[in-house]
């Protein structure tokens, strides 16, 4: 008698598509944190077609769930708006359910260690969040929903992100991706750039660089991305980090070799973004 073939088991772990093309999102939130209400409102108002769950607070447009164990399915992406003491237990519970991608828009001391111990990958700490306008997903702290377009923004500063989103709305320009790297103690620029280099929805890439976790990985990913689309980097305050200016000069030379245009001010970044956003993609023979 022939036994039926066993189906291969899905290997648990982080998948890029869970972050960049999620089908379901869970918000784990403490109502006492001001970011919780903003995230709940933005998630509900974005027009996302997938399932949206809320744990810890009641929010219109989100399915209320008692805890992670009670989730009807493992979400692709989790947004953790929780105090530090509650973060690692929540990450461990999510990983046990099969969710390995997270965003932490709040302070998260020891985030790298929490990710290593739980097997999760996370944006943060103090991430501005994630916005994918074409999917109707606004898991960010933005004050408005950006329109779909071809600009991609990877930012560390929430203030810079809001300024660029405001400017783009006035110019009627849209975004393919807005990703808040935050303090860059979790998922960093390299992974996001690797994805954007392969995503035909993304056009010009705007970078707000403040802290680079792994310079070699960043430069390699930036070079690969710059081969297929323009990349412009704002790196303010270089001499404040290193008064001698040596480290800043080394970084500028590395960016230039990678094909990345470095600008020193927000106005220069916006001017470059406007020009690049209005260019039509070149047709390949």
Automatic annotation (TrEMBL):
<feature type="domain" description="CoA-binding">
    <location>
        <begin position="19"/>
        <end position="104"/>
    </location>
</feature>
<dbReference type="Pfam" id="PF13607">
    <property type="entry name" value="Succ_CoA_lig"/>
</dbReference>
<keyword id="KW-0547">Nucleotide-binding</keyword>
<keyword id="KW-0436">Ligase</keyword>
<dbReference type="GO" id="GO:0006099">
    <property type="term" value="P:tricarboxylic acid cycle"/>
</dbReference>
<dbReference type="InterPro" id="IPR003781">
    <property type="entry name" value="CoA-bd"/>
</dbReference>
<keyword id="KW-0067">ATP-binding</keyword>
<dbReference type="InterPro" id="IPR051538">
    <property type="entry name" value="Acyl-CoA_Synth/Transferase"/>
</dbReference>
<dbReference type="InterPro" id="IPR016102">
    <property type="entry name" value="Succinyl-CoA_synth-like"/>
</dbReference>
<keyword id="KW-0816">Tricarboxylic acid cycle</keyword>
<dbReference type="InterPro" id="IPR036291">
    <property type="entry name" value="NAD(P)-bd_dom_sf"/>
</dbReference>
<dbReference type="GO" id="GO:0016874">
    <property type="term" value="F:ligase activity"/>
</dbReference>
<dbReference type="InterPro" id="IPR032875">
    <property type="entry name" value="Succ_CoA_lig_flav_dom"/>
</dbReference>
<dbReference type="GO" id="GO:0005524">
    <property type="term" value="F:ATP binding"/>
</dbReference>
<protein>
    <recommendedName>
        <fullName>CoA-binding domain-containing protein</fullName>
    </recommendedName>
</protein>
């Amino acid at each position: 008698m022939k036994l039926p073939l066993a189906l291969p088991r899905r290997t648990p772990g982080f998948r890029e598509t869970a972050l960049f093309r999620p089908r379901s999102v869970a918000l784990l939130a403490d109502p006492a944190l001001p970011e919780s209400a903003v995230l709940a409102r933005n998630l509900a108002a974005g027009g996302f077609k997938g399932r949206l769950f809320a744990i810890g607070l009641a929010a219109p447009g989100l399915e209320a769930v008692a805890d992670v164990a009670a989730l009807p399915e493992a979400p692709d992406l989790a947004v953790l708006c929780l105090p530090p003491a509650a973060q690692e237990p929540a990450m461990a519970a999510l990983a046990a359910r099969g969710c390995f991608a997270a965003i932490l828009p709040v302070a998260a001391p020891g985030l790298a260690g929490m990710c290593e111990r739980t097997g999760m990958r996370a944006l943060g700490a103090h991430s501005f969040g994630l916005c994918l306008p074409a999917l109707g997903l606004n898991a960010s702290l933005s004050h408005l929903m950006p329109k779909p377009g071809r600009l991609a923004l990877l930012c560390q500063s929430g203030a810079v992100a809001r300024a660029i989103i405001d400017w783009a709305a006035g110019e009627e320009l849209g975004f393919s991706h807005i990703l808040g790297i935050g303090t860059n103690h979790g998922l960093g620029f390299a992974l996001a750039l690797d994805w954007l280099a392969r995503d035909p929805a993304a056009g010009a890439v705007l970078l707000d660089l403040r802290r680079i976790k792994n310079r070699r990985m960043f430069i390699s990913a930036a070079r690969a991305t710059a081969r297929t689309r323009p990349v412009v980097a704002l790196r303010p305050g270089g001499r404040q980090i290193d008064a001698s200016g040596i480290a800043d000069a080394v970084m500028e030379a590395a960016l230039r070799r990678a094909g990345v245009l470095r600008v020193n001010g927000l106005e220069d970044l916006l001017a470059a973004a406007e020009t690049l956003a209005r260019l039509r993609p070149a047709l390949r023979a």
